[in-house]
Backbone:
């Protein structure tokens, strides 16, 4: 459509076309007028947008709404045709597919209208108004104490369970893809996929049972507690710079001494107990480790209503202990309490170094916890003072990295602007990550992805946590494009006209998905390198949570027929499984390990089905769990097995922007945040 800025009187205008001025009017209202619920004149730009100097855009599709009587008539007239088509499809399927595979591919035939096969403005009418490729989920569970209801956002690994369950169905079960009714709320029921992978213990936190408080540490061993405290000081204390190590050790001795001349404050006691419990959690052979954790949880109630800087720090320490113990939602609750106490105590307005370090720790821990759970952050960038440019400490660098992680997290909470803008915004955040990596080397000497054998002490601790956060931020930043690539492949969209997408092609989408896969592989490689050092770091750095995000991406990429995405993913899954088994059998590691074993089994079964359909055989010397890419079957046979629910009338030349705009992503990569850019520029 051509743009016109000259005023035109109503007398010389027609409804659709003005012959004298050659101006074509749009029968639809622009997005801005839709949002404001006002009348639109249909021009480009329309009069109201031109007066307000607003961006004027129109939808690329029309949502046709018919009356109930017409819908019923169309349903009656097409039922016979659809049944006849399904009989023909069934006959052709019997002729080309062995009978042993028919039950796995059977699915109900959708009922569509007469014009379903005819695209409307590039979009078939049979397409739902939104595709739940990336969605929020709700998890519910009935317990003896009542009903548990939890919400997880789109960036959480639990939202990906639906896609894993769809692209990797259990043998004999039909693939069920998320396809919500557009009239219902956007939060979907995730219970089916959670049960499919036996993920209840993780999703519902394996919630702790409140133990009665202990009067003293007579039931525990001094030597065991000292080992746990030392482990905490070596592995976790560097990330909590507000802790005074000398005071912490002195309070530990006072807690275990028989003399009663010195009484610890409640907050100091909680800090010591939480530190012991945190350090003892990863030491599976340590006596009384469960008793330390139970005591820390019992002490949490003693500082619930105390408001000062020390209780803020103690509550923060308790929240991270719960995250380490496999209860991320309890961690989220404690973290929110710590932030509210900081606001109530005015810690965010204090200029002392201890208060600033406390706010930095709150900011970083909330950034990671909310990103991994899909929650919204409550502590804003304006609530803390960012590190000065000349500050080259590890603490300052970690704050800068968490600020970038937040900019990546914002893509899950913005309005969609089309795939071109989304890719551009994701690339902008990726550029920030690359800049951070290069500046980190010059300021601290820490090389992300570099060798580990020469690192010790605090340097090694910072290398591990910064590398993990860097990789998981990159993984979550580009994971939506991997999910979109899988959905497009399932719907047999093999090519997209670049001129209809502002230059976006499938190859560009695949390239973006590769970034997420590379980050997943890097997480596995980092964990493997750490464990090979033999320095007992298996239980100290949330390895299970980062490996969980990595294996979900690797499993999804392994079933994509493109070798660009699937290459090496199946082998990395086996490596991740070996690493998870080294972490022990406690939750949440136990459930993650079982889920990975199930993923590998499903991928192998899927490859075996495809090999049987095409008559291919597994090569000599290859086990059933060998790489899918090594199995002897054509890659193009993967699409028909997964396309049983492809909508009738799907347009293979459908514009990617058309598809992206109707997906229920609950995301949208925004333009660069000017406030964040300003703050980041001074880092």
Residues:
């Amino acid at each position: 459509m051509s743009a016109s800025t000259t005023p035109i009187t109503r007398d010389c205008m027609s409804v659709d076309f003005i012959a004298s001025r050659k101006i074509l009017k749009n029968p639809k209202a622009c997005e801005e007028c839709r949002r404001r619920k006002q009348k639109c004149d249909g021009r480009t730009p329309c009069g109201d947008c031109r007066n307000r100097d607003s961006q004027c855009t129109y939808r690329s599709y029309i949502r046709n709404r018919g009356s109930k009587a017409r819908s019923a008539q169309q349903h009656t007239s097409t039922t016979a045709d659809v049944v006849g088509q399904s009989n023909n499809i069934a006959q052709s399927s019997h002729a080309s597919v062995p009978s042993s595979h028919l039950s796995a591919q059977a699915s109900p035939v959708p009922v569509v209208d007469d014009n379903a096969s005819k695209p409307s403005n590039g979009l078939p009418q049979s397409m739902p108004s939104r595709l739940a490729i990336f969605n929020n989920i709700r998890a519910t569970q009935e317990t003896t104490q009542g009903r548990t209801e939890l919400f997880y956002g789109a960036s959480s690994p639990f939202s990906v369970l639906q896609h894993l369950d769809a692209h990797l169905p259990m043998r004999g079960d039909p693939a069920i893809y998320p396809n919500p009714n557009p009239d219902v709320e956007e939060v979907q029921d995730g219970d089916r996929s959670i049960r499919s992978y036996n993920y209840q213990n993780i999703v519902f936190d394996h919630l702790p049972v409140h133990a009665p408080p202990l009067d003293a540490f007579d039931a525990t061993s001094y030597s065991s507690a000292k080992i746990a405290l030392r482990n905490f000081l070596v592995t976790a204390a560097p990330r909590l710079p507000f802790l005074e190590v000398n005071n912490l050790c002195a309070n530990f001795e006072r807690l275990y001494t028989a003399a009663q001349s010195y009484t610890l404050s409640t907050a100091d006691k909680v800090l010591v107990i939480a530190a012991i419990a945190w350090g003892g959690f990863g030491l599976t052979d340590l006596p009384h480790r469960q008793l330390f954790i139970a005591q820390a949880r019992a002490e949490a109630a003693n500082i619930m209503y105390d408001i000062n800087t020390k209780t803020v720090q103690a509550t923060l320490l308790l929240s991270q202990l719960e995250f380490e113990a496999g209860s991320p939602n309890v961690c989220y609750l404690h973290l929110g309490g710590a932030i509210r106490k900081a606001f109530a105590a005015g810690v965010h307005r204090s200029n002392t170094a201890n208060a600033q370090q406390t706010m930095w720790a709150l900011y970083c821990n909330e950034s990671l916890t909310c990103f991994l759970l899909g929650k919204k952050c409550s502590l804003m960038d304006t609530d803390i003072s960012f590190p000065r440019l000349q500050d080259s400490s590890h603490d300052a660098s970690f704050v800068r990295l968490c600020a970038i992680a937040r900019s990546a997290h914002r893509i899950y909470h913005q309005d969609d602007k089309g795939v071109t803008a989304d890719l551009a915004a994701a690339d902008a955040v990726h550029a920030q990550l690359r800049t951070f990596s290069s500046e980190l080397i010059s300021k601290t000497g820490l090389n992300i992805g570099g060798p580990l054998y020469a690192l010790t002490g605090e340097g090694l601790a910072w290398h591990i946590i910064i590398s993990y956060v860097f990789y998981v931020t990159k993984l979550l930043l580009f994971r939506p494009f991997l999910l979109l690539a899988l959905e497009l492949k399932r719907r047999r969209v093999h090519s997209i006209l670049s001129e209809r997408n502002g230059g976006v092609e499938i190859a560009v989408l695949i390239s973006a998905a590769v970034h997420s896969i590379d980050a997943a592989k890097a997480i596995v490689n980092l964990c493997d390198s750490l464990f090979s050092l033999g320095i007992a770091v298996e239980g100290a750095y949330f390895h299970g949570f980062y490996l969980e995000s990595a294996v979900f991406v690797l499993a999804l990429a392994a079933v994509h027929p493109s070798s660009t995405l699937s290459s090496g993913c199946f082998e990395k899954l086996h490596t991740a499984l070996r690493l998870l088994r080294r972490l022990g059998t406690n939750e949440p590691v136990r459930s993650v390990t079982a889920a990975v074993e199930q993923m590998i089994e499903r991928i192998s079964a899927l490859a075996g089905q495809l090999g049987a359909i095409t008559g291919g055989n597994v090569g000599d010397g290859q086990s059933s769990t060998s790489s899918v890419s090594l199995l002897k079957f054509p890659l193009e046979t993967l699409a028909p097995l997964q396309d049983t629910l492809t909508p009738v009338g799907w347009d293979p030349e459908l514009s990617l922007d058309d598809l992206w705009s109707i997906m229920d992503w609950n995301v949208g990569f925004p333009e660069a945040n000017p406030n964040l850019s300003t703050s980041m520029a001074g880092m």
Notes: The chain is about 50% helix and 5% strand. The first strand starts at residue 17 and ends at 18.
